[in-house]
Amino acid sequence: xxxxxxxxxxxxxxxxxxxxxxxxxxxxxxxxxxxxxxxxxxxxxxxxxxxxxxxxxxxxxxxxxxxxxxxxxxxxxxxxxxxxxxxxxxxxxxxxxxxxxxxxxxxxxxxxxxxxxxxxxxxxxxxxxxxxxxxxxxxxxxxxxxxxxxxxxxxxxxxxxxxxxxxxxxxxxxxxxxxxxxxxxxxxxxxxxxxxxxxxxxxxxxxxxxxxxxxxxxxxxxxxxxxxxxxxxxxxxxxxxxxxxxxxxxxxxxxxxxxxxxxxxxxxxxxxxxxxxxxxxxxxxxxxxxxxxxxxxxxxxxxxxxxxxxxxxxxxxxxxxxxxxxxxxxxxxxxxxxxxxxxxxxxxxxxxxxxxxxxxxxxxxxxxxxxxxxxxxxxxxxxxxxxxxxxxxxxxxxxxxxxxxxxxxxxxxxxxxxxxxxxxxxxxxxxxxxxxxxxxxxxxxxxxxxxxxxxxxxxxxxxxxxxxxxxxxxxxxxxxxxxxxxxxxxxxxxxxxxxxxxxxxxxxxxxxxxxxxxxxxxxxxxxxxxxxxxxxxxxxxxxxxxxxxxxxxxxxxxxxxxxxxxxxxxxxxxxxxxxxxxxxxxxxxxxxxxx
Length: 595
Description:
By secondary structure, this protein is an alpha+beta fold. The strands form three sheets. Strands 5-6-10-9-8-7 form a six-stranded mixed beta barrel. A two-stranded antiparallel ribbon has the order 1-2. Helix 16 links the parallel strand 5 and strand 6.
């Protein structure tokens, strides 16, 4: 019995010992499971921290490229500083975790900057060149910022580090291109109102061979620029001032070429607009793009040359939209600060366009432009305010220039007799614009009269001319006279044979001539005394204009006309005044031509 009880006791003790051992095992397993869970939790938290850090790296890297793409170097550099800070955080983590995954990812991100900047430049070039009239607003400036960021971020030992000097040179070159795009115009200068001056070589005078060579050169440079991702230094260096001015010059060449080639012109405009386009208007379906002043002028020039006013009208909706957009931009963001660079930029675009429209003789469009600027509260210079007033008076449309071949006849324009100073200003401005020599005279005053003759009275032109020669002797060499054949360039069948032309040698009557002609017609002698402005060789348009206005206001010409009539009186011995007075001659036969 005692043996059995002992066995039971031993079993009980073994049971409890086993149970105790099992409890310890369970506890150990629980502890291990807890430790594993804590480890997994720590790994998850670390992965989350790494993912958040990595997302910040990716976001910052994207921001660097975005800021470069928007031409914001300072913000791009700030983002790069943030990236460097993230790299330092990663290195500290790696040190504590005894890993290098932060460092590897950061180094990969820094290495990606170079390739992403290169692709940004490629996209900017391709986007601008391919879109043509809708080029990238940030084109050249973004490429320059991308190059500057390459310099800022490149590390010793990187593939680009040895090209630092070449990148700096490329930045210098592309800066000249940017400066060219910021100019109001690059090839044509219109600072003198209505008078264009093209830079050399003048695109309107280029030969077809020169233009072909220029086109080939531009195509070659375009292809080089498109390879900017492979060779950023060479590709960016191409996009300089020469590329801008040459593409503009080619556009003007095709605008003036006869016959007009619309496809060649549009391709030249594409090259010109690629990097000069920077004017957009928001519309219902997106944005509408506008070219700069020079592009609009070239379009108007081409249309005007091909078909005149009727074809130009096809461009008027675009031109008026361009005008309204720029007029709004003059004041939209400037709070009427007339010294603001934004105001000055858009205002100068509009003022230059106005000068160009005067050159093209598109006066209705010029008037619409100036009227729109006034309505939009743009401050017009005094000259343009006067110009608008003059256009509204409608005087400019009949001012014509004539091509007169050199010859023995004396040519004059009779339509100028009623001109005022404004018309003379337009005439001489046109003369300068077209670079024409003025080889004919302008009528300033035209006095005519029919003088009754006695029945059977004969008139000798030779006798009259001889009397006029005697008359000029009283002027002590200040006046000379000669016989000429004269004709009006603006009229048909108006020709005066054997007319007498008086020339004046004094400074007070410089460039003044007087044409006298008389012709018997039945019982009347038809007399014409015309005062004219006759240019001297060697005078520029400004000097010609000053002397023409002085001649128009010359107070001596009426007195000289009276001298001519007195001489005519001496020859004719008529009994009725040339001026048509009803007074009869005195009974002793005294003449009464001049009372």
